[in-house]
Amino acid sequence: MKIATYNVNGVNGRLPVLLRWLKETAPDVVCLQELKAPQEKFPEQAIREAGYNAIWQGQKSWNGVAILARDKNIQEIRRALPGDEEDSHSRYIEAQIEGISIGCLYLPNGNPLPGPKFDYKLRWFQRLTEHAAGLLAAGTPVVLAGDYNVMPTDLDVYKPERWINDALFRPEVRLAFRTLVDQGWTDALRKLYPEEKIYTFWDYFRNAYGRDAGLRIDHFLLSPALDKRLLAAGVDRHVRGWEKTSDHAPVWIELAGA
After folding, report:
1. For residue range 171-197, what is the model confidence (pLDDT) as tens digits?
2. Is position 209 annotated as part of the catalytic site?
3. Is 165 annotated as contributing to ligand binding?
4. Is 149 labelled a binding residue?
5. Any catalytic annotation for residue 119?
6. Active-site choice (92, 106, 199, 209)
7. C-beta separation of 142 from 220 below 8 A
8. In terms of residue numbers, what domain contains 248?
9. Per residue in 88-133, pLDDT tens?
């Protein structure tokens, strides 16, 4: 099974790019973030014509997450992260597909800091960590995929010294990511490429993509049952070079059958 995650940075504005990539790579499951579309404006028909079923949780102007599955049934589990009933951000959706629980997430950016946005990011991370512990305890195969808005180590950012005071690289945020992983999750890309420079995001400004001034902020965390099934992982970085594309590139893993 090939599973991908892709922050599309506006599902309707980038729809031609998304459909081109789906046709080119044909992943079995796709987690999308930053739909930037209300629930009723999700391009369901175009996605279905591309061969995918979909569930989604939209939000006007920003946020929004979706899970797509090619010729597979999607059993929705939840469409919000537990722990705060007053949280109105559309940042998490979870489903089961062919026996695998898939959590698609868009973790808050957290800038500027200090301030309420950074505090919200840390609270959201704590809620994710608590929910992830429950998923592990259940013992079923789980993938937590999406835009985590964190560079876990210096290897994941082109010039670490420039990001010391950014919410994506603050020690508190990197510690939160390590705490989550240390529950027993596997960072899929780092398992296969422990020392390689791998980026998933390049800013639109200052020719970041051309200079390869990137960040690795889109991650796959795998439960122990799936860690054993991991065959391959990668970044479709060439998609970042397409016209009118997202500032993220799609990231993917391949899993062996159960």
Report:
1. 999 999 999 999 999 999 999 999 999
2. no
3. no
4. yes
5. no
6. 106
7. no
8. 2-255
9. 999 999 999 999 999 999 999 999 999 999 999 999 999 999 999 9
Closest among 198, 190, 246, 248 to 222, alpha carbons compared: 190
Report how far residue 256's alpha carbon sits from residue 67's, in angstroms, rounded to the nearest whole number: 20
Residue holding tokens 């469409």?
79
Cβ-contact 188, 221 below 8 angstroms:
yes
Is 147 annotated in the active site? yes
Tell me, what CATH number does 125's domain have?
3.60.10.10
Predicted confidence (pLDDT) at residue 199 exceeds the cutoff of 80: yes
Angle between the 116-138 and 171-181 helix axes, to the nearest 10 degrees? 10
Q: Is-above-0.90 flag for pTM?
A: yes
Question: Is 85 annotated for ligand binding?
Answer: no
Catalytic residue among 6, 89, 147, 156: 147
Active-site choice (89, 131, 219, 248): 248
User: For the chain, how many structural domains are there in total?
Assistant: 1
